[in-house]
Amino acid sequence: MIVRDLFHTITNARRADFFCNNHRMNESDRKRQRLTLAAKLRAVVDGPHVLSTEQELKPYECDGLSAYRVVPLLVVLPGSVEEVQAILRICHSEQVPVVARGAGTGLSGGALPNEGGILLSLARLNRIFSVDPDNCCARVQPGVRNLAISEAAKPHGLYYAPDPSSQIACSIGGNVAENAGGVHCLKYGLTVNNLIAVEMITIEGERITLGGGGLDGPGYDLLALMTGSEGMLGVVVEVTVKLLPIPQQAQVALAAFDEVETAGQAVADIIAAGILPAGLEMMDNPSIRASEDFVHAGYPTDAAAILLCEVDGGAEEVSEDIARVRQRLLDSGATEVRTASDASERARFWAGRKAAFPAVGRISPDYYCMDGTIPRKHLPRVLREIARYSQESGLGVANVFHAGDGNLHPLILYDANNAGELELAEQVGGRILELCVEVGGTITGEHGVGLEKINQMCAQFPPEELQMFHDVKGVFDPRGLLNPGKAIPTLNRCAEFGAMHVKAGDLRFPHLERF
Amino acid sequence: MSDRDIAQDLAKQVRDAAERRQPLRLVGLDSKASYGHAVQGEALHLSAHRGITSYEPTELVLSARAGTPIPDIEAALAANGQMLAFEPPGFSGTASLGGAMASGLGGPRRPWGGAPRDLMLGMTLLDGRGRILHFGGEVMKNVAGYDLSRLMAGALGTLGALLEVSIKVLPAPKVERSLVLNLSRDRALQLMREVARQPAPLSGACHLDDRLYLRLSGNAASVAAWEKQIGGDGGAGTGFWLDLRDHGLAFFDSDRPLWRLSLPPATPRLDCEQQVLTDWAGAQRWVYSSSSATEIRDEVAKAGGHAILFRHGDDKTPVFHPLDGVRERLHRGLKQTFDPFGILNPGRQYASL
Predict the structure, then answer these.
(1) Chain B closest CA to A7's CA: distance in Å?
(2) Looking at the structure, do residues A232 and A303 belong to the same domain, yes or no?
(3) B265 contacts A136? CB cut-off 8 A
(4) Which of the residues A271, B57, B138, B263 could staple to B267 if both were Cys, CB 3.0 to 4.6 A apart?
(5) How is A384-426 classified by DSSP, letter by letter?
(6) Does B262 contact A216 at a Cβ distance shorter than 8 Å?
(7) A3 found inside a domain
(8) A463 contact B CB<8A
(9) A446–B143 CB contact, under 8 Å
């Protein structure tokens, strides 16, 4: 997926704060520390897998959120679990921050390096240990690509269900760290619902198993706690995923609507009819037109919104369900409903949706992808408000929506070359996320908080809850060495974030205590 | 009883207890009182804190206070063609939503419909300091902050009292059919695994006394097609699955120690499985055994699972599978974080928690 550079300057406040929290040091100190630490790490990891020159380090300075760039002290690529343990022991005793990285496709800056720390790339741990059809599971290393698991399971008629859009490139370790989703979550769940066990290394270098070989493990559900913890609690070195039988058949219907509200109601009507679609996606008019220009999927470009509704299962079930979906869509006011007559037409229907982000990238020099989730019933209001923000700011917004599970991806269009547009895009994005919280939703459905949404966490959680998050981290990582400064804002930061808004004459978080 | 919100009263009781360092025994509807170690402490009654606070069938989300009886929730869902996919057991009594989630137990549908932790979307928690905290939400996808809601599922109230819970609900199947096949345990386990790896609309797979019980759920055509394919020697009513869920089958009518083994489902018969009911297509086994607790736990751990002394244990044998050093430390750290005075259900799960 191409997400163009987002905010280069916007986040001055956010970035300054992060960088201040990073260990500041002058260049010669930094060089000395780099050399000393590299020597220690080369004693436990093959020399070539400890990267230390600027040229070697540069490719690791950002993840999928390329607006943020930090060159780490060192990059280390362990080739075994024992090496990961040894590296962490060194970092723990030397008090060196550790940022774990899978494929680096994350969109929220979760794998942004720490200036004074090491970037721990798990890319070399990329073996599939076993595909076990009898137990419907696969045991893999964290660097294995999401799609590679399904490919390995395919000969057994099985697959791994979570399919984030980056599945061709993203790693399963990163999926665990982010609790990655995809377009089939409503029916098949998120990463957390599709894991059996995880092997984790603590910051002290100890190896533990979370989960069990069966459907549960003893004690607290640390597997659930670890999933989506953004590399803040431990380093994943092995993952056992659940495999599901590949559905016999899938069918997709494409419906056009002349009002976004009608499309939203149609989604509710399908659910009310007792159908649980495998995928249920919505695109608004700007997204439809951008996609159609790009991939010519045959979308109706005059529609206010389209819905793509996929059902899967047994052959008999699918043909019955798709007929019911079709009828529902018509009853709900669709102006047109098409069902794909064969696999190639089905692929074409999906091609437009799958190309939506790059398609928008063609019509705007830059765009900023948001990731809020809302209770679906508030969709009309949220889309109306987004349209109003768009009008007020003068920036276009194209909406792509995992309609089934309420996960909204507004794409804010801007041109970074026009002075001030970046800041404006950021403001619009912030307002959208705060609106998501206001209607009972969340600031991130599947991309994670990382560094990107750390300020909006202050809007979603009051200080006591944030403190609880910090305390939980303290249990796993008392010295705060794992991915410091990410995912959970300090209470001070939230107070300052509030203060920034006060300065602008707009007190947006009056309920926050000031520390 | 009518709907009531007594969250503030409950918070005050916990604050008082915290001040006095007085242990509390969390009590919902007490249907699972025998699960875990007995807790010595004052009762904190959650059953009066009840009522469905929001239910939007088209959102597939229901929120209710912890004391709400499961049958009330199931009735509200059934009226809209929906269900609790984890089939919470009530055993001999009536379960509450809080107890169902805190126990983490699932019924026969669990391998396909999910466990309480899978359906948990968010919750209001009363921690050991008597503070009311909110985590998660009412939406399907939410990755803001650590997932503390799911951490509470199965923690048996040792990290906090659940006050209100939001869960994902699912459409109820249009048709359900139960098949019975006369098969030995070994052949049944084989067949269960074979069916489980095919895209069959399976929602139950249990073996007892040379009979394999399979439940199919879905639309009429698909259930009929699979019924034909699998065949069978007869049918079973819905009563079997309810009795399995609530331990109403004659198998459970014993005062011998009952073990629950959680295993990789294809694990062949273990030595300790002397008298066994196999559920969850092999992943959950209820066992009466003459092996010692240590022998059972060693054998199960070797096979990659864990063993719970579910009922009729003695006072000396730990109910739950012992934790190793690092996990034990993390558990104690979490307990300290949520319940610094150690007053919430102390010892119910592990002596040190």
Answers:
(1) 21
(2) no
(3) yes
(4) B263
(5) HHHHHHHHHHT--EEEEEETTTTEEEEEEEE-TTSTTHHHHHH
(6) yes
(7) no
(8) no
(9) yes
Range of the domain at A212: 128-245
A206 within domain boundaries: yes
AA identity, residue B69: P
Q: Which B-chain residues 223-262 have CB contacts (< 8 A) with chain A? A: 224-226, 262
The answer to whether B134 contacts A218, with C-beta atoms less than 8 Å apart, is no
Residues A342 and A233 in one domain: no
Q: Least CB-CB distance to B142: which of A233, A445, A473?
A: A445
Return the CATH number at A23: 3.30.43.10
Domain termination site, one of A453, A468, A490: A453
* Chain B residues within 8 A of A240 when measuring between CB atoms: none
Nearest CA distance, B251 vs chain A (angstrom): 23
pTM, two decimal places: 0.94
B42 lies within 8 A of chain A by CB: no
A384 to chain B, closest Cα gap in Å: 20
Q: Tell whether A68 and A92 lie within a shared domain.
A: yes
Q: Which pLDDT tens digit goes with each residue over B89-98? A: 999 899 999 9
| A313-334 average pLDDT score | 94
What CA–CA distances, in Å, run from A436 to A23, A407, A460?
34, 10, 9
Question: Is the domain of A117 the same as that of A149?
Answer: no
Q: Please answer yes or no on whether B145 and A476 come within 8 Å at the CB atom.
A: no
Higher pLDDT, A23 or B182: B182
Give chain A's domain count.
5
Sorted by sequence, the CB contacts under 8 Å of residue A31 that are 6+ apart come out as none
Q: Is A142 helix (H, G, I), strand (E, B) or coil?
A: coil
In whole angstroms, give the CA distance from residue A455 to residue A28. Answer: 33
Contact partners, residue B327, CB within 8 Å, separation at least 6:
A208, A219, A222
Say whether both A317 and A375 belong to one domain.
Answer: no
| Cβ within 8 Å, pair A134-B193 | yes
Whether residue A305 is contained in a domain is answered as yes
Report whether CATH 3.30.1330.10 matches the domain B7-171.
no
Q: Where are the CATH 3.30.465.10 domain residues in chain B? A: 7-171
Residues A354 and A401 in one domain: no
pLDDT band at residue A13 using 50, 70 and 90 as cut-offs: very low
A350 and A370, same domain (yes or no): no
CA distance B250 to chain A (A): 25
Using the Cβ of B12 and the Cβ atoms of chain A, whether some distance falls under 8 Å is answered with no
Please name every residue paired with B344 in a beta bridge, in sequence order, or none if there are none.
B24
Q: Cα separation of A502 and A496, whole Å? A: 10
Which of the four pLDDT bands, split at 50, 70 and 90, describes residue A314?
A: confident
Judgement on whether residues A273 and A324 belong to the same structural domain of the protein: yes
Contact B323 A218 (CB under 8 A): yes
**pLDDT value at residue A18:** 62
Among the partner residues B144, B147, B304, nearest to A212 by beta-carbon distance: B304
Is A393 part of a structural domain of the chain?
yes
* Interface membership of B56 toward A (CB under 8 Å): yes
Residue A94 half-sphere exposure toward CB, CA atoms < 13 A: 20
Smallest Cα distance from A99 to chain B, Å: 17
Contacts of B283 in chain A (CB under 8 A): 214-215
Domain final residue, candidates A75, A101, A121 = A121
Which DSSP string do the residues of B83-146 spell out, in sequence order?
A: E-TT----TTS--BHHHHHHH----TTHHHH--HHHHEEEEEEE-TTS-EEEEE-SSS---SS-
A15 pLDDT more than 60: no
b/e per residue, B268-283, with b = 16+ CB within 10 A?
eebebbeebbbbbbbb
Maximum distance among all Cα pairs of chain B, rounded to whole angstroms: 65
Q: Which of residues 230-269 of A touch B (CB under 8 A)?
A: 232-233, 245-248, 267-269
Pairs of CB atoms within 8 A across A/B: 267
Q: Give me the residue from A225, A374, A441 closest to B147, CB to CB.
A: A225
pLDDT bin (cut points 50, 70, 90) of residue A14 is low
